[in-house]
Write a sequence for this structure.
């Protein structure tokens, strides 16, 4: 069994304890992760702070070169890292949206981020004086990542932070730490010692990070409840925060759509990574005139999609990653049915012998249904009819989350008008969840603070200094 290590100051750190990581497809242990203590955390943060002095003054062009070298390294080791992702996360390795896709995204995001610039901005240059706006690194950035996209989300956190001149301490989810730990070990072959460090363990480490005086910024992707706890504890030292939290994305399908044309996009917009994606479609509102056609076409399409072990030929969907999330999805489906929802396909499971949950569609009439109001983060989609565009917008906005949304129509101008009235950070037209490294991404309402990606995401890893002369 492969041995995984923490990285501290460019060196492997041996911990006193380890914990087992389970393959959700087979329920077999795939590796042992180091389990850090609070003392280990203190030591790792100390190394990151030590490295910040020299890294923050490294010329920007040199940092860009380092980032491109990281992209080369990730590309070289894509197959290895994808295999680890599939073992610990469950997503199929060769599926169009599987673990090799995740590695391709990680490489692409790294290369694009390396191309971004941080120019000095001249605010004034006249007889009254010269004023320049400079972007400075913040310090030590803590990255706390979830279990659904363990490598790609870590890259989203780490690369812009490092390019901006910060050093990083990354804590992956205890459900999927192995691929991230290995990735950071590979990154350390490229970067100077202490620029990117890793820590692994349970929730107590996350709490210690958010409270730690040695951390200057936290980038967190995960649940809204955990984000609120981080925000509260980090307030003691006024840490800078970027929080990408829970989503409950709504899709609105207008009556002029051709069901056969849009159903593949609807399906994968909802079930990318088996629905375990923050910006997956979680609620689908369909005009009553084509409601039955959409429901019938979706169920027919779903029956053609193969679910199975991540290394099985042809597998496109894997299991739910962990038992806690499986229980959340299963209970929400049960409650939805109790509240009047009609099962169109799939449905709740009485047996919990495995973490494979069938693709499930529930026809729902009322917006207060549990499966509509609560983020399921799994392969179950409520489908709700509407009669007017105004009603659809009200229903879509009737939720505390505000990450993404989509509008589906042959009339792009009408769709764009609806998009402008949706209360969310990103709206797609005739697709869902298509994030890009050049477009800032973030939520409103309870879906988070700040943005990632593109120039705006890079700037979020800096502070402003104005120089008057």
């Amino acid at each position: 069994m492969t041995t995984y290590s923490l990285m501290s100051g460019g060196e492997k750190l041996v911990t006193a304890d380890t914990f087992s990581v389970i393959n959700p497809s087979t329920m077999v242990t795939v590796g042992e992760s180091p389990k850090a203590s609070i003392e280990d955390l203190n030591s790792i943060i100390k190394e990151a702070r030590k490295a910040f002095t020299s890294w923050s003054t490294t010329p920007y062009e040199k940092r860009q070169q380092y980032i491109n070298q990281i992209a080369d390294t990730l590309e070289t080791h894509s197959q290895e890292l994808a295999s680890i992702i599939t073992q610990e996360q469950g997503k199929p390795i060769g599926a169009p949206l599987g673990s090799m896709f995740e590695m391709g995204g990680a490489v692409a995001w790294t290369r694009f981020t390396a191309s971004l610039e941080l120019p000095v901005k001249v605010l004034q240059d006249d007889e009254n004086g010269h004023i320049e706006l400079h972007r400075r690194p913040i310090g030590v950035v803590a990255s706390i990542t979830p279990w659904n996209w363990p490598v790609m989300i870590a890259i989203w956190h780490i690369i812009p932070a490092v390019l901006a001149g910060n050093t990083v301490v990354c804590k992956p989810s205890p459900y999927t730490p192995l691929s991230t730990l290995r990735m950071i070990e590979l990154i350390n072959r490229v970067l100077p010692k202490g620029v990117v460090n890793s820590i692994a363990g349970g929730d107590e480490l996350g709490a210690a990070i958010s409270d730690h005086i040695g951390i200057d910024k936290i980038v967190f992707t995960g649940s809204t409840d955990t984000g609120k706890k981080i925000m509260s504890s980090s307030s003691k030292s006024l840490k800078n925060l970027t929080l990408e939290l829970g989503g409950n994305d709504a899709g609105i399908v207008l009556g002029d759509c051709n069901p056969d044309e849009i159903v593949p996009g609807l399906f994968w917009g909802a079930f990318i990574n088996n629905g375990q994606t923050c910006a997956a479609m979680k609620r689908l509102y369909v005009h009553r005139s084509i409601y039955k056609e959409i429901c019938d076409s979706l169920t027919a399409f779903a029956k053609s999609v193969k679910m199975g072990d991540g290394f099985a030929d042809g597998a496109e969907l894997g299991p739910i990653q962990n038992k806690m999330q499986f229980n959340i999805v299963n209970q929400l489906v049960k409650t939805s049915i109790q509240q009047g929802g009609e099962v169109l396909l799939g449905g709740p499971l009485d047996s919990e012998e495995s973490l494979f949950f069938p693709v499930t569609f529930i026809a729902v009439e009322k917006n207060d249904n549990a499966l509509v109001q609560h983020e399921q983060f799994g392969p179950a989609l409520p489908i709700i009819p509407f009669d007017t565009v105004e009603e659809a917008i009200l229903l879509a906005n009737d939720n505390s989350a505000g990450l993404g949304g989509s509008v589906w129509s042959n009339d792009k101008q009408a769709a764009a008008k609806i998009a402008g009235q949706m209360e969310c950070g990103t709206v797609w037209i005739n697709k869902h969840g298509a994030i890009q490294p050049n477009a800032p991404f973030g939520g409103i309402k309870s879906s988070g603070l700040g943005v990632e990606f593109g120039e705006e995401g890079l700037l979020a890893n800096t502070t402003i200094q104005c120089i008057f002369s």
Remarks:
- The first strand starts at residue 6 and ends at 8.
- The mean pLDDT is 97.
- The two ends are 61 Å apart (CA to CA).
